[in-house]
Each structure stands twice: as structure tokens, then as C-alpha cells.
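Figure S4 source data
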Amino acid sequence: MDVESEQFLQKRATFALAMKTKDFLLLPVAALAIISCQQAPANDEAPAAAMLDEARQLLAVRDYSAARDTILSLRRQHPTALDARRAAILTLDSVELMEARDSAAACEQRLQAARDSFAQMPPRIDGHTNDAYYLQQRRVMALDQSYDEICAKVKFFVRKIDIDRQAD
């Protein structure tokens, strides 16, 4: 055999070995990809839907923290229940919206009481500065700012829910 033939045979053997190694490594990667891309098991939707119903019932009785915890548990325990998770997004937004509305109502009541109290206070008593007047003025301003922030949160969640509903 001449040198060129031997070199050709060596290159061919090296190439064949490389192809076998490549196929050997490619097979487990392909199998893993196929397994990971399988559809979610149908039986995962039922318990997730039950948890979602529980969260909605908790929302109806205004138990916001329990409803939020139930939804977060649903997301952790049923990562493949896509339909339930999609519906849970709207439910969680509704929890946040209703909680913000309740907070806004409570803050508005406190703000109105603080304004009424402030309106009755004189800025000066016997020619001296009334410290209670200015303290109440700061309270009113802080409550007013809190109320504005809560109202912005309500507007955000109203818009977010509308956008999420349009996307479905």
C-alpha cells in the first residue's frame, strides 16, 4: 500500500469514529429534548382548577392573603397546568385590585376624618404657633399622598386586567 492510501484509510477511520461519538452524544440530548417537550399531563389541570376555585371563593369572602397564597401554591405545585395558571393570573390581579380598592376606601375615610379635624384647628393660639395644627397638617398631607398612591395602584390593576382579558 502506498502512503496516500494509508493516510486516506486513517482519515476515514478517524471520521467514522468521530461520527459514532457524535451520534452517541446526540442520542441522549435528543431523547431529553423529546421528553421535556411533551404536553402537560391532563390530570394536572384538575387539581390546579380546584385550587383556582378555592382561591376565587377566598376572594369572594375578601380573604386576600389566603387567596394570594393559594394562587402562589398553585403555581408552585402545578407548573404544567397552563390553563389554570393562565386563569390564575387574572384571579391574582383581581385579588390585588380588590385589596387596593378596600385600602383606598379605608384611606379615604381616614383622610376625611383628618381633614375634618384639621379644619377645626386654629393655626395660632393666643398669638403662639399651634404645633398640633401643623402636625395635623402633615398627617393630612401624608394621608393624601398615600391615597393618591393607592388610587394609582387601582388604576394600574384595572388596566392590567383589561389587557389580560383582551389577550385571551
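Figure S5 source data
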Amino acid sequence: MGLAVALGFTGCSSDAPKTAAQYRHEVNAVCRAARRAVAELPKANAADPVALVKAARRALVDQRDAARSLEALRRPAQLSRAARAWLALVGRALNAIDDSLRAQAQSDLPAAERANASASKLVLEADAAARALGVLDCATPPT
């Protein structure tokens, strides 16, 4: 889901109305910075489930920080409804990821699998909403 950290990113400081293009530019910048920050996190040993959960938690913190930065950006009126809907999906996806990590930490595999399925569905929906909004850097890149 192209969610990530916007370290040091600040929203528009002007009181002038923001255009859709300006908003998309700022949102994409937050998502690019977040993607870079998550990519730079130390990699966990794939054979160590505890280390994997710990690494995923660090990434989740960065993604939540980015989501807060995105929420703080002023939206132009014509994009407000779509942006709110997209960010709500992002928040729900992050919550499902958190649920999965919590279940994994408790060795509750069935709960982790349910949360993973929910997170996967929500990430797909959030990606579609990001693409429709025109913030392509915030959608999961195709593999």
C-alpha cells in the first residue's frame, strides 16, 4: 500500500486554497518518503518469527506516522470525499496489520490468518482508491 513515513514532511503552510494538483503532489511526496523510510529499516532474519514481527512493528509505526501526515494535509474540496474514504481504508488496513502482528506475537495462527486476509483485502481497496484519487505513489507498486 504505499503507506509510509513522512519524516520531517509538513503540510501546506499557506491559507490559500490548494489545487488538486498541489494536493496530489504533496500526498505523493509523503508516500515516496514513507516508502524510502520503510525500505531503509533493518531487515529481519526470515527464520526468526519474533524478529519478523518486531521489524514489521517498526514499519507499521512509520506507516502510521505517514498516515497522520496525510490526514494533516488540507484537501481541496473536490477531492475531500475521495481522500477521506481512501485514508479511512488506509487506517483500517493498518489496524488489520496491527491485529495480525499482535496475533503472531501471541502465537495465535488462526487469528493472524484472519487478520492477514482482512489486511490484504483492505490494502487492495486502499490501492484502488489511491489510484482513483491520482496518488499513484501511495498505491502498492505492481510486482
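Residues 1-14 have pLDDT under 50 and may be disordered. Helices lie at 20-39, 49-72, 77-105, 109-133.
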